[in-house]
Amino acid sequence: MSEPSRQILVVDGDAPIRREIKSACEQDGYQVLEADTGSEALRVHTAAHPNLVLLEVTLPDGSGFDVCRELRRSDPTSPVIMMSTRSDEIDVVVALEIGADDYVTKPLRLRELAARIAAHLRRARMESAEAMRTRLEFRDLVIDVNERRIYKSGKEIELTHTEFDLLTFLASNAGKVLSREKILNSIWGYEYPIETRVIDVHIRNLRRKIETQPARPYYILAVPGIGYRFTNARPV
After folding, report:
1. Residue 235 within any structural domain of the chain
2. What percent of the chain has pLDDT over 90?
3. Which residue in 35, 77, 119, 129 could disulfide with 40, CB within 3.0 to 4.6 Å?
4. What is the pTM (predicted TM-score) of this model?
5. How confident is the model at residue 43 (pLDDT cuts 50, 70, 90)?
6. CATH number for 111
7. Contact, 55 vs 64, CB < 8 A?
8. How large is the average pLDDT for residues 131-157?
9. Which residue among 109, 128, 147 closes a domain?
10. How far is CA 202 from CA 18, 88, 95, 101, in A?
11. % helix / strand / coil in the chain, to the nearest 5?
12. Above 80 in pLDDT, residue 191?
């Protein structure tokens, strides 16, 4: 039997695709649970508490976005990877804003999907271990790494799982120019190409939450043609 930390829930109304994903995941040693509707996905998730969810955007009984919102209410940390034939930016933005960790488009490239699954599970395992007590402070922004909490001007700010990891990585490298590739490898943990808009949408979401003027950011600065740099200003 697979280790508990390697249990995946695949949610897709297309049975052949679901079986294809299941077969590929089982070959990598994962225990795979299946659901073909959103309501079934929520039931299975409540009963089994899988370590990662692969979630189709379009389901027979509604939207995968709604399912993702429900999953995030009950489980804010386990990785959720959304899947869809839809590649419009608005779909990617919505998925990430409601708490999904990643977004992949169909037809699926199974080797790439396997790399993404492994990376997200590896990151989740590392974060579940005892964290080093670290507190990062920048002017009116405080990042409590151990407690995974963010405060701006003394008020706690709610971030998604991936937003927190991204902000902490940027802040831990304050003053350094970080390429999109470096961010990808450090946060998502795999080397397969990722659409830059996935990173950019997460950055935009972070700016909206932590910047006083998101259109004129103080903390997260773009470096054209390369990536991003977090301010290296000392606390005041």
Report:
1. no
2. 61
3. 35
4. 0.71
5. very high
6. 3.40.50.2300
7. yes
8. 86
9. 128
10. 28, 16, 11, 9
11. 45, 25, 35
12. no
Tell me: do 102 and 197 sit in the same domain: no
Measured CA to CA in angstroms, residue 201 lies from 13, 163, 223 at distances of 27, 10, 16
Tokens for 130, please give them: 């005892």
Mean pLDDT of 47-57: 96
> Kind of pairing, strands 227-230 and 177-179?
antiparallel
- Alpha-carbon distance of 227 to 180, in angstroms, equals 5
Encoded amino acid at 100, one letter: A
Contact, 134 vs 147, CB < 8 A? no
What strand order describes the sheet that includes 135-138? 135-138, 141-144, 149-152, 155-157
User: Number of structural domains, the chain?
Assistant: 2
Residue 37 carries which DSSP code? Answer: S
The distance in angstroms from the start CA to the end CA of the chain is: 54
Residue with tokens 């507190």: 135
Instruction: Give the DSSP H/E element, type plus range, for residue 151.
Output: strand 149-152
Are residues 217 and 194 part of one domain?
yes
Which pLDDT does position 188 carry in this prediction? Answer: 78
- What does the H/E/C string look like for 39-94? HHHHHHHHHHCCCEEEEECEECCEEHHHHHHHHHHHCCCCCEEEEECCCCHHHHHH
120 and 169 co-located in one domain: no
Query: d(Cα 168, Cα 187) in Å, to the nearest integer?
Result: 10
CA–CA dist 201, 117 (Å, integer): 20
Beta bridge partners of 143: 136, 150
- For the record, the structure tokens of 36 come out as 């073909």
Distance CA 169, CA 79 (A): 18
